[in-house]
Input
Amino acid sequence: MIEAQQLTKRYGEKTAVDGLDFTVKPGTVTGFLGPNGAGKSTTMRMIVGLDAPTSGSVTVNGHRYARHQAPLQEVGALLEAKSIHPGRSAYHHLRALALTHGIPRRRVDEVVELAGLGSVAKKRAGAFSLGMGQRLGIAAALLGDPQTVMLDEPVNGLDPEGVLWIRNLLTSLADEGRTVFVSSHLMSEVALVADHLIIVGRGRLLADTTVRDLVREAGGDTVKVATQDPARLRDVLAGPGVEITGRIGTEELQVTGMSAREIGLKAAEHGIPLFELTTKAVSLEEAFMELTRDAVEYHGSTGTETSGSAA
Amino acid sequence: MSTLTATPETPEAATRAPARPVYRVTGRRVLASEWAKLWSLRSTWITLGLGLLFLVAFGVIAASHYKSNLDSGRHMDRDFATATAVGLSLFGTNFAQLALGVLGVLVTAGEYSTGMIRSTLAAVPRRLPVLWSKAAVYGLVALVVATAGAFVAFLVGSRIVSGTPAAMGLGHAGVVRSLLGAGLYLGLVGVIGAALGALLRSVAGGISVLVAALMLVPGLVSLLPTSWQGDIDPYLPSHAGESIFALTHDSTTLSPSAGLLVFLGWTALALAGAAYRLLRSDV
Output
């Protein structure tokens, strides 16, 4: 369980994180989404105490991260930037971290195997490929067998095989009942694994929602209809809650608020021939773009309001 | 390490996950971790080896040089003419302090330049135990290596100069104190290096300030008016440090114990600065 309350981080003039409130509930996979520079990494660094909030607070399982007697057992974090000494072997890196907590050697071997590092564990970590480095980061995150695993852009720069590995890992972590908090700027990546979404833009919370709700709020499904007489079909379909758009001079209409089946029946009832009748689901990516684009505009036009509405 | 004695586990946590092992960060464990970190890097072995080599080799070279000058009957400058076996053997201290100080900087600043510090502080988010452990572990290692080096340099060097006016044995008054003092001085230089590395978070910056403090500042002070010099000079890190292991003392130098106290003061100051920055700044 991670709880942020009015979490704020300023670097001089720039506000990286601006009054964030959110809760990452136990036992869920929560996606942390936002364009680059939205404050995701800063937020995650504040969660594990690497950065101190300018104001507000964030707690892990009820306490500040640093207050825990065994922090690695509460949250395992994979941060975006490499956090290893390139001259040390993967094994010695993990062993040094394990020693701080009294984590037995056996567990180090376990996470080495789990991350698929068995054959390279004794090699200098500086020689690792990006994918291997990421596996080492994940091995370190799992060292304390934490209930919450937090990963910052875990698939960034990985090859398809690496992406697949991370995806399966996230799913298996969730299946074990762990809380997974994973950030990304790619909705498509997160949507595959996440139930819950926290969406930020320019350091502000844009949405705290679920994948299903996000799609529904973004306008739900549209039906594309093509007919010889769009004007007449328009009249026939018109009704409360139904929205019809279409360009003049074309035979196509976009209908929301009615299912393809209803449209087909209505058209047949009035003897209007249809050439095409397709349900087009709003992709999550579109919904996400819509949301973050609005945020950018909002910030651009009402900059003076920012301080007042942050409270 | 009292800050590390954590509160007892809440009953809630115990009932929620009874099967989970109980881990806990303690001061002793952070020490063990820093010990493991130090020895798992090749640079540690290389730099310590260099420090030891400088200490012994330059001591032996200085002793041989003295002996050959004496044998050939050439004129020697005054410093050299009044040399003792201890002074000659510890000639390498100046060079060894560079190697050991630089390794001290690497121990802390190296974590910042590589990003390792994020892993370190995520594991020990209270932070200060990391600094104390690094300083203690590395200071102790540097002390042991330097003391061993000083004794080896003296044993070899004193054999070379035996039968000359500089000859001395371990039994001579003040010799053992000098050699131990040299080890202590170099150990503390290591701690200062580590503190500067943590304070400046940059390998280049840490080394620069270390070299400036130990080698350049005395030169700069000599440009000051003479009346000031006498008041400042003995208290400079390098001069206070030298008086810890110098065999003879005069009115312009501090006594060994006073020198040690002053040098400890400089060490504490550097550590305090490092601790302040560690607690205050984001990483």
Notes: Chain B touches chain A at residues 6-7, 9, 17, 20-26, 29-30, 32-33, 36-37, 40-43, 110-111, 114-127, 282-283 (CB under 8 Å). Residues 128-160 of chain B form the longest helix (33 residues).
